[in-house]
Structures are given as C-alpha cells and as structure tokens.
C-alpha cells in the first residue's frame, strides 16, 4: 500500500497541484492525506477529480487556514471514526491488512488493529 502524507501549505496553486499529480502517477498512490490545504469543500471535490482518486473525507478550512483531506482508491475500504479541524481518524481495510489510521495536521500515525492503538508510539515524521 503506497500512502502519501503531505503538509502542502495550500494545494490550490497550479505548481503544487501539478507536483501532487506527478507523485500520484509515478508512485501509484493508494491513499493521500493532505493537511493545510486551505480549501473549501468545493475545492476539495475539484481536487479529488483532478487527482483521480474516487473516495474522499475532508475537513474544510476555517477562514483562510487549515483544511484536511484524505483521498483513496477503490482497492481500499475506509470507515470514518472521527474528523475535526486538526485530525481525521479512520479504519482502513486494504488488500494486505487492516489498519487504524489517525492523520493529524502535523502527525501521521498508523497501526495494525491487532496491536494496541497508541498514536504516540508509532508516529512517523
């Protein structure tokens, strides 16, 4: 499973969107988490179409800051546990395994369901 987590600090400009499209194509991404998108719901929907990943959970920006989006392809099943301004928490079933994932605007954490879920112990920076 190929996953990208990126604090993109605004995805609406052409250069950043182009870079994201290239990453998705070159690395055959299954799932993407973007933080600080600075996007509205309408812009997140446009992003979903532009990237070509059919599924999405999004948290809109507040005024001109924030914004989170989790996009994934059809090979994965994602169930939303919770989403707020700073994080998206999901269960993911992929072809390989079952995961619990918490994606925070500054932190990515993932663990197998069979193991105790501790966001701090498995964090990747």
What does this structure look like?
The chain is α+β, with helices and mostly antiparallel strands and 125 residues long. It has helices spanning 14-27, 41-51, and strands at residues 3-7, 31-35, 55-59, 68-72, 77-84, 87-93, 98-104, 107-112, 123-124. It is built from two helices and nine strands. The chain is globular and about 35 Å long. It is 20% helix and 40% strand. The strands form two sheets. It has a five-stranded antiparallel beta sheet with strand order 5-6-7-8-9, with no helix packed on it. It has a four-stranded mixed beta sheet with strand order 1-2-4-3, with helices on one face. β1 (3-7), α1 (14-27) and β2 form a beta-alpha-beta unit.
Dominant shape: globular
Mean pLDDT: 82
- State the helix count: 2
C-alpha-based Rg, rounded: 14 Å
Helical fraction? 10-25%
Q: Span from first to last CA?
A: 18 Å
Flag low-confidence runs. Answer: 112-125
One letter per element, helices H and strands E, the order comes to: EHEHEEEEEEE
- For the secondary structure, the number of strands is 9
Instruction: Please list the strands of the largest sheet in the order they lie side by side.
Output: 5-6-7-8-9
Indicate the proportion of strand residues: 35-45%
Please give the largest β-sheet: 5 strands, antiparallel
The assigned structural class equals: alpha+beta
